[in-house]
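User: Here's a structure from my thesis project, written as structure tokens. My advisor, Dr. K., wants to see whether a designed sequence matches the one we expressed. Can you design one independently, without my sequence as a hint?
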């Protein structure tokens, strides 16, 4: 019996590297506030792959804009492109929730008041100021 070929994670890693190298202006702004444990000591990863419903031959995955493993929290920035992808975003959110993750969506326009956004994230993480 032939041995099953294991999934090649290098494709996912290559895609995440591409996304990290081509972050939107909104992602860059928020990343400056989250990186290096700046927000109450929480570690965030950017453009982080999240696997779901997979096996050794094939994994399904989403790439989160920002991810905090300590709180199993996903932060997604929604720009204009998300207005045309509402069904996909709902599907994605439901799959992630099934895996025990919590999702916070922030509209790009909200970043004009960064202090308010950071308070919103801390509240979402259940941390008081």
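Assistant: Designed independently from the structure alone:
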């Amino acid at each position: 019996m032939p041995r099953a070929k294991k999934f090649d994670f290098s494709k996912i890693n290559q895609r995440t590297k591409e996304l990290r190298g081509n972050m939107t202006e909104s992602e860059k702004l928020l990343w400056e506030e989250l990186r290096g444990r700046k927000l109450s000591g929480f570690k965030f990863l950017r453009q982080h792959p999240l696997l779901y419903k997979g096996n050794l031959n094939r994994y399904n995955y989403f790439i989160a804009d920002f991810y905090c493993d300590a709180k199993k929290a996903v932060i997604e920035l929604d720009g204009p492109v998300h207005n045309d992808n509402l069904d996909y975003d709902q599907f994605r959110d439901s799959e992630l929730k099934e895996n025990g993750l919590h999702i916070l969506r922030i509209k790009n326009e909200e970043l004009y008041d960064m202090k308010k956004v950071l308070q919103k994230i801390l509240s979402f993480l259940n941390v008081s100021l």
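When you compare it with your expressed construct, this may help: The mean pLDDT is 85.
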